[in-house]
């Protein structure tokens, strides 16, 4: 019995029948299907969400880490568990990295839900307090609109028949019509369409069937229109596969800027390339996970710390790659020539010091209205990570040496 089967078994014991060699069946649904379609979304990322929808604290759920269940965090830091699944693993596209692709060389069983089946499974997990929401993606049959119709039908059944009020993240399929995206926005909290690569040239290396502008960017623009009309509580996000086709981090950064500025995205997610056995890219080396981590840090500098494009560019080497160092530290080492005085520096200047984040910068600015900062302990009490910050500060006239900064850099 797989982990997801166990959850369903525990949740609905009275309805569960073990059928021996014929497979495990829950309420007429083959549980192998539940497991395979749950596993099929493991590269789709949704680790953060920022819906304005209030979820009743009395409905707090237990913590589970299982295949098919993922966790997102709301803007206030609360963890939300979601049932993450494909509607079908049948797909007519040929993306070289994907196990659902037409290029996949191994035998696989094709599964599809009916809308009623998927709604029943979701509501069982929801009633059992294992999930608070649904993350619904899918392979794409010959017509993306037909597949989307079935996904939307699932949401309708969930909401109208079962009164489901949980969080919904709905994947918009490449090429789907505006009318279907609009219908999805009326039922889902968040929509996303994966851009996968930073440009059309890179996408064409990975897929001959998807068009970057027509199938993806145009759909993002449709979602943006709906967001402007306030029809989407948690906005739109997207995801990139990092390093599947030789693109540099700077190529990714340039695309990400456009995503935030032109498409009004809430978040971009990065999924480092890992070859899947049986796909056309199975012999390509996996990318190091630190690459994904450094891209998230770069993203954070832009989105949360409001670093300019010009400042962030400093973190890339001549070939356009980030090195395996905290980009904020790297930028500070290359720009902060003299110590920053916490009594004099502006909020923005403080934010550029490693070890000082938005909260601690804000606290320093407030604290110094009535107090003078003359020792490190005061900063520590205000939430500053003094181990990282001290080599870049001038406190009470004392500036720390370059060798300290160098050591700090080496120990990150
Ligand atoms: S469209 Fe999606 S599911 Fe289909 S092959 Fe490409 S990545 Fe896989």
UniProtKB/TrEMBL annotation:
One of its GO terms (biological process) is DNA repair. Keywords: Iron, Iron-sulfur, Metal-binding, S-adenosyl-L-methionine. InterPro entries: Aldolase_TIM, DNA_rSAM_put, Elp3/MiaA/NifB-like_rSAM, Endo/Exo/Phosphatase_dom_1, Hlx-hairpin-Hlx_DNA-bd_motif, rSAM, rSAM_sf, RuvA_2-like. Residues 72-308 form the Radical SAM core domain. It holds the Pfam family HHH_3. Gene3D superfamilies: Aldolase class I (3.20.20.70), Photosystem II 12 kDa extrinsic protein (1.10.150.320). This is Biotin synthase. GO terms for molecular function: catalytic activity; DNA binding; iron-sulfur cluster binding; metal ion binding. The keyword Signal does not apply. The keyword Secreted does not apply.
């Amino acid at each position: 019995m797989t982990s997801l089967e166990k959850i369903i078994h525990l949740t609905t014991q009275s309805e569960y029948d073990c059928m021996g060699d014929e497979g495990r069946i829950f309420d007429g649904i083959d549980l192998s299907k539940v497991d395979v379609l749950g596993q099929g979304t493991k590269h789709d990322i949704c680790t953060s969400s920022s819906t304005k929808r209030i979820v009743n604290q009395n409905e707090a759920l237990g913590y589970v880490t299982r295949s098919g269940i993922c966790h997102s965090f709301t803007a206030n830091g609360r963890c939300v568990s979601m049932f993450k699944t494909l509607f079908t693993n049948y797909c007519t596209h040929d993306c070289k990295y994907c196990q659902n692709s037409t290029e996949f060389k191994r035998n696989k069983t094709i599964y599809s839900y009916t809308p009623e089946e998927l709604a029943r499974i979701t509501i069982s997990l929801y009633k059992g307090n294992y999930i608070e929401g649904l993350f619904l993606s899918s392979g794409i049959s010959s017509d993306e609109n037909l597949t989307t119709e079935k996904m939307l039908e699932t949401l309708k059944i969930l909401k109208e028949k079962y009164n489901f009020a949980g969080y919904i993240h709905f994947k918009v399929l490449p090429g789907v019509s505006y009318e279907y995206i609009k219908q999805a926005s009326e039922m889902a909290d968040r929509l996303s369409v994966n851009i996968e690569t930073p440009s059309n040239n890179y996408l064409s290396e990975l897929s001959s069937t998807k068009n970057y502008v027509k199938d993806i960017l145009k759909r993002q623009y449709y979602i943006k229109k709906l967001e402007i009309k306030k029809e989407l509580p948690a906005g739109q996000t997207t995801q990139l596969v990092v390093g599947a086709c030789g693109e540099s981090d700077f190529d990714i950064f340039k695309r990400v800027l456009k995503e935030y500025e032109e498409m009004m995205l809430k978040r971009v997610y990065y999924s480092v390339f890992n070859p899947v056995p049986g796909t056309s890219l199975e012999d390509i080396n996996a990318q190091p996970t630190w690459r994904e981590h450094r891209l998230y840090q770069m993203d954070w500098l832009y989105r949360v710390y409001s670093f300019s494009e010009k400042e962030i560019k400093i973190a890339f080497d001549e070939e356009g790659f980030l090195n395996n160092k905290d980009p904020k530290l790297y930028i500070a080492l290359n720009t902060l020539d003299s110590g920053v005085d916490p009594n004099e520096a502006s909020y923005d200047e403080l934010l550029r010091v490693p070890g000082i984040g938005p909260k601690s910068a804000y606290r320093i600015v407030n604290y110094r209205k009535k107090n003078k900062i003359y020792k490190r302990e005061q900063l520590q009490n205000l939430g500053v990570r003094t181990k990282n910050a001290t080599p870049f500060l001038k406190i009470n006239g004392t500036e720390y040496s370059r060798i300290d900064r160098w050591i700090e850099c080496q120990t990150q």
